[in-house]
Design goal:
The complex is a heterodimer of chains A (215) and B (183). By secondary structure, chain A is α/β, with parallel strands linked by helices. Chain A is built from seven helices and ten strands. In chain A, the strands form three sheets. A six-stranded mixed beta sheet of chain A has the order 6-1-8-7-9-10. A two-stranded antiparallel ribbon of chain A has the order 2-3. In chain A, 42% of the residues are buried. The C terminus of chain A is likely disordered. In chain B, the strands form three sheets. Chain B has a four-stranded antiparallel beta sheet with strand order 5-6-7-8, with no helix packed on it. In chain B, strands 1-10-9 form a three-stranded antiparallel beta sheet, with no helix packed on it. In chain B, strands 2-3-4 form a three-stranded antiparallel beta sheet, with no helix packed on it.
Chain lengths: 215, 183
Amino acid sequence: MVPDHHVFFLDPNRCIGCQACVHACSECDTHKGHSMIHLEYVDRSQSVQTVPVVCMHCDAPTCAEVCPADAIKRTGDGVVQTARKPRCIACNNCVLACPFGVPKMNVGFELMMKCDMCYDRTSAGLKPMCATVCPSGALAFGTLEQMEHARPRSRPIHSFQFGAQEVTTKVRMMVPRGAPAEHIDVTSMMDQAPDAGFVPVDVLLGAMHRHGEGS
Amino acid sequence: MSIEHRDPRPRFPDGRPADEQPAWRNDFPIDWPDDQYVARRDYTKFMVLTSLAFAVGQLWIGVKRLVRRGRREPTARVEVARLADVPVGGVRTFRYPGPENACLLLRPDEGTLVAYGQECTHLSCAVVPRLGRGELHCPCHVGAFDLKTGRPIAGPPRRPLPRIALEVRGGVIYATGVEERTT
């Protein structure tokens, strides 16, 4: 069991795009050579800003909701596990449905593989591999008190808007304390005019990038 | 730091509580603990129904056996061969009681005359006599039956071959009945 007070924090504006997390992840013996963490560019033509994408471990996991084979399960501590090999039919439903783009289909294995927060490590009291190697603290694992002490100008958010769906997650995303965002609209970057009150993720990151507001 | 307290219970996309969710959610829960949980009532139901099914099956086998025994008609007396045509160490095939029941008539020595159904009791292959070894050999899975008694001595078969009751009268061998045995 991952204890409840151990929280995974994602602080995308601290990401420097060094790929350390990607390589650390693909070193893992359970999925050697296949990284479960993705490093995405926010807007490649405008900025070099990258963002690490780990599974957010939703409270109502959409990937599991859409799985027709009942292959995606969540453990009692709220960690959504990778698809169970005997059940996964490689239908790609979860890949298409996930609001965060986390699950990826391994066509060769006919298996969906996704981040499980290094369950073998975190359930034994260790940090996820990516959080141990991240040099800039974009991926951090610890208690809320530690985080509050280390990043006084940020606060964690675990509510996301995905169209009409509100997604709450186990993993927290750090946003500037002063930002009015209560949740992050994941799809608003597709719209030209974001809704007032919702801070679209690219605008949020872009603003922090420009003003150097990162905590 | 404003920290929203996470609701530890599973949440559903429509936001309604667990008891208002459709029944399939209980059958295919997303959470592992719910998936592995077996209610005492479900377990009891499973055990009761399974044992009931076994009991009914046993009863059915018994009833079938009784019915079959009651329906057994007196088997006909059929001429098989003339005694003079079967030399010592000789074998004759015949069909008894019906045309689809192949049988073997064996005369391993002067005073012995035995007949068995030819179907192996394992998977109904035709057994082949090996008089020199004193056995009936089944080539399919290398089973063997004792020539004297028809009982299995090697290989997968567990039940003896059906023995055909014989009667010799006036130099003619007659088959008079089939002795089905289970042990």
